[in-house]
Amino acid sequence: MKILVCISHVPDTTSKINFTNSDSEFDTNGVQFVINPNDEFGLTRAIWFQEQQGANVTVVNVGGPETEPTLRKALAIGANEAIRINANPTDGFFVAKQLTEVIKNGGYDLIIAGKESLDYNGGMVPGMVAGLLGYNFLNSCVSLTIDGNSATALREIDGGKETVSTSLPLIIGGQKGLVEEKDLRIPNMRGIMTARTKVLTIIEPVAASSETKAIKFEKPAPRSAVKLVSADNLDELISLLHNEAKVI
């Protein structure tokens, strides 16, 4: 079984976020980047298939040279090889077109992506790839098993969970629950050293248009100062809850 894991290169959630050029571009200065958490759950599940069922695992990313440390980390975790599509990921459709070409040329049985990346939260890429290829697609997966050419997945839906059976080739959008957090892999020294010798292929992008453009970014409004009300001043408390907080 050949598995392709799509990796997004995203800011660490603890990083302080700023914007430049009249708030139209993300400022990367001083920002630590990591594997998108939803993708990391998918990568860990792919490594399980590698260890238990002999799968070959390739990771792929659309990005410039600055994303290679993230791909190398994925190799250190256990992926067999990596592909970097040498392009700026301008929007979800552009990324989907690039991934589609890699999948068509690679003959992958299972494509694992995160249900969304934690930088823009678009949640569109895996579904677009499935649409472009005509592959089966399951989103919000929290469990996945493969038996031959058949797959069984558990996915979250409004108000509960749904068990689905389908066939390969298959694209899934994974999330927390696909593996337990305690099972996430941390690269050890042997993995880091081995990753240096693994193949990281750089390919040029295919022609594709960007269908959306970010006009402006805005940070959430800062929280207002806390107002302290004396325990014996119930009238003021009720007035604030009614007129300012508007909760009563």
What features would you describe in this structure?
- This protein is of the alpha/beta class and 248 residues long.
- The chain has helices at residues 37-53, 68-77, 92-106, 125-133, 189-195, 234-243, and strands spanning 2-6, 9-11, 18-20, 25-27, 33-35, 56-62, 81-85, 110-114, 136-147, 150-157, 160-167, 170-174, 200-203.
- The strands form three sheets. It has a nine-stranded mixed sheet with strand order 11-10-9-12-8-1-6-7-13, sandwiched between helices. The protein has a two-stranded antiparallel ribbon with strand order 2-5.
- Helix 3 packs across helix 4.
- The chain is globular, with a radius of gyration of 22 Å.
User: What structural class do the secondary elements suggest?
Assistant: alpha/beta
Oligomeric form: single chain
Q: State the end-to-end CA separation.
A: 58 Å
Side-by-side strand order of the widest sheet: 11-10-9-12-8-1-6-7-13
Strand content: 25-35%
Query: How is the main sheet built?
Result: 9 strands, mixed
**What is Rg?**
22 Å
Q: Please mark out the parts with pLDDT under 50 across 5 or more consecutive residues, or reply none.
A: none
